Amino acid sequence: MPPADLPGGPDDRFVTGLIPLQTRLYRFIAGLVPVRADAEDVFQKAMLTAWQERGKYDPDRDLYAWLCGIARNHVRHHVRAAYRAKAVLDPEVIDRLAERLIDEDEYFQRRQAALTACLEKLPAKSRSLIEEVYGAGKSIKDVAAGLGAGAEGVYKAVQRVRAALHECVTATLTREG
């Protein structure tokens, strides 16, 4: 019997789907568990459970929703344990917060897709400027020095591009409803 984790096997496909969702899942958990160390602990437990239960995952279902269900159970367990030590959030509040965070994540994903599309529409020079400042994490001063320009001029150029991106994203989201 061949190993389950050969490239293209179910484990490989599961991991390929899981990796890009990790940041979203952590953001979901951190919205429910305010202490960072606790959120990280719950995240690790949720990821371990997801791996252990991967055979029960139906690939026709939304993986993110499945992961959020696992994470929600771990948050509930964490809250119950914390409740024994000290009063914390009511489970009903956790469920309402979880639903809100999922809704906000959907909006964030639409906004992220709109931003990506708007970035692609920028002229190459503007896109390059934004990528240097935000993608490479350089300061305006460093970018200006690299371009042989003044920092004030580069700052104003970045502001203009940001304003254009904001307008584009807003228009895109408005068109989508």
Describe this structure in words.
There is one protein chain. The chain has 177 residues and is mainly α. The chain is 77% helix and 0% strand. It has 8 helices and no strands. The chain has helices at 10-18, 22-32, 36-52, 63-85, 91-121, 124-135, 140-147, 151-176. α3 (36-52) packs across α4. The longest helix is centred in the middle third of the chain and has 31 residues, at 91-121. The radius of gyration is 21 Å and the shape is elongated. The model is unreliable at 1-6 (pLDDT under 50).
Please specify the SSE layout and strand pairing.
Elements: H1 10-18, H2 22-32, H3 36-52, H4 63-85, H5 91-121, H6 124-135, H7 140-147, H8 151-176
Helix pairs in contact: 2-3, 2-4, 2-5, 3-4, 4-5, 5-8, 6-8, 7-8
Structure characteristics:
elongated; 8 helices; 177 residues; disordered N terminus; mainly alpha
Q: What's the quaternary structure here? A: single chain
Number of strands: 0
Looking at the structure, what is the overall shape?
A: elongated
SS content category: mainly alpha
State the gist of this model:
With 177 residues, the protein is mostly helical. It has helices at 10-18, 22-32, 36-52, 63-85, 91-121, 124-135, 140-147, 151-176. The radius of gyration is 21 Å and the shape is elongated.
